[in-house]
Structure formats: C-alpha cells, structure tokens
TrEMBL record:
Alphabetical UniProt keywords: DNA-binding, Transcription, Transcription regulation
Keyword Transferase in record: no
Region of interest: Disordered: 1-25
Domain HTH gntR-type residues, every copy: 31-99
Organism, as annotated: Dongia rigui
Superkingdom of source: Bacteria
Protein name: FadR/GntR family transcriptional regulator
PANTHER family: TRANSCRIPTIONAL REGULATOR, GNTR FAMILY, UXU OPERON TRANSCRIPTIONAL REGULATOR
UniProt cross-references to InterPro entries, sorted A to Z: GntR_C, TF_FadR/GntR_C, Tscrpt_reg_HTH_GntR, WH-like_DNA-bd_sf, WH_DNA-bd_sf
Membrane-spanning segments: none
Any Pfam family matching the protein: GntR
Length: 252
C-alpha cells in the first residue's frame, strides 16, 4: 500500500482505486467498510510507510482515497486509536503512535548473558590496546572519576552497575576509534535492557563488587603506564572473571 496523499482519479477513470502520492493505486473495495480501511492503514503504519509522530492525511482525503464516507473513515481511525497505533488531537489531526521494534531490541531479547560476555571478549581486549595507545590525560581523569563513583556506590548493585557501565564506555571512548565506539555503544544498549536487572542482582554480591573495583583500578594503572599487552591481558581476565560468575562457578 502506498502513501495516501491528496486523492485523484486514476488515469483510466475506472474508479478501481485512488492514486497515492508515489503513483501507486490504493486498493479499494466498496463492499468493505471501516474494518478493511483500518486494516489497510494498520498495514501502512506497521510497515513504516508512516513514521512515528507523522500526521496522517485528513479524513476527507482518506475518504476520497478509499472511496468511503468520512463516517466510515472516522470509525476506522477510532479502531486504530483503540489499538494505540494513532493519537488524535482535536484541531490538529491524527498522528502515528507506533515505534517499530528495532533489530537491536530483537537481539537484546534473545541474547544470553554468556553470549554478551563472549562478544565483549571479542572486542574489549583490542579496544583496550587502542585506549593504551590513544588515551589522553582527560580520558584517564574521566575513567578515574568513574571508578571512584563505583567505589562510592558501596554494595548497591544498581548504582555500581551504572558506573561500571560508564567506566567501560569511557574505555571505548579512550580508544579514539569511532567505529569501535559505535560497536561498544550497541553492546551497552543491550546491557541496559530489563532482563539484565534480575541477573545483576544475583551475581553482584558485595565481595564480587569489591573484586571488580580492584580489577578496574589495576586496569586503569596499566593504561596510564602505557602497558599495551598488560592492559589487554587484564581486561581479558576481568571478563573471564565475569563469565565465571555468570556460569555460577564458586570460588572465582
């Protein structure tokens, strides 16, 4: 289904459909009413033909395009409003209220904690090497501040996680490679999904938080000393430590 603009008869004047702004014909069936019209509009919204926040054509334009009465169109819009696909504002019009599920949302929902750690193991050691080579004094200062904030969080896993996440993001920024940073930002977005909250509270005991803080300090020291391979080995060990916690191995 094409976008619906100001309607016009098709060139043949057959009445089989109305012309959309992109030149395609809109399907019209005189035997179908508001349910069918709602279905056509729903399909266009879900497919992204109309974007979130975008204003739909006026009721009179929709009525002409679908060869239906404005009452029928209004009933169709009522149905979409009940489904929360559109929002109707008096005096302004009807606006799309639908955000399509992104690929990242789909991946986040199906990614296990172990898969996330394995992905980080593939990226962070080299990211750390770049940080050792490229980090500025300001980068080091910001990472130091994040570590201090994490330590000040005490045994609170939620606040600690916020600063742990910030520390690793600052590490990505210190690499000064835009593609690496972009990749790591997507990893961080997956870490922010709700499914990680319950896992976090189970894994982050006070003893483990203290150990993570110690590891962060050691890693920052290696970066400040420009120890490329030492820092890469530390972040690898750090992530393997996290992996063992997720696997439930005791004594790690």
């Amino acid at each position: 289904m094409g976008r619906i603009g100001t309607p016009a008869k098709d060139a043949a004047g057959s009445g089989a459909g109305r012309s959309a702004t992109d030149g395609s014909l809109l399907p019209v069936d005189g035997n179908r009413g508001s349910v069918w019209i709602a279905g056509q509009l729903r399909q266009a919204i879900v497919a992204g033909t109309y974007k979130h926040g975008e204003k739909l054509p006026a009721e009179r334009h929709l009525a002409d395009a679908f060869e239906a009465s404005r009452t029928t169109v209004r009933l169709a819009l009522d149905q979409l409003e009940q489904e929360r696909l559109v929002t109707r504002r008096v005096g302004s019009g009807t606006f799309v209220n639908h955000r399509p599920v992104s690929d990242l949302d789909n991946i986040a929902d199906s990614t296990s904690p172990l898969e996330l750690i394995e992905a980080r193991l593939g990226l962070e050691p080299h990211m750390t090497r770049l940080a050792v080579l490229n980090a500025t004094n300001r980068d080091l200062e910001k990472m130091t501040e994040a570590i201090e904030k994490a330590e000040a969080a005490g045994d609170d896993p939620e606040i600690w996680t916020e600063w742990d996440t910030q520390f690793h993001l600052l590490l990505a920024e210190a690499a000064h490679n835009r593609l690496v940073l972009w990749l790591y930002q997507h990893i961080n977005e997956i870490r922010s999904h709700d499914q990680w909250a319950s896992m976090r509270d189970k894994v982050l005991t006070p003893a483990r938080i203290a150990e993570y803080n110690r590891q962060h300090r050691a890693l920052l020291g290696a970066i400040a000393s420009r120890d490329v391979e030492g820092a890469a080995a530390m972040v690898t060990s750090h992530l393997h430590f996290a992996r063992r916690q997720l696997m439930g191995i005791e004594g790690a």
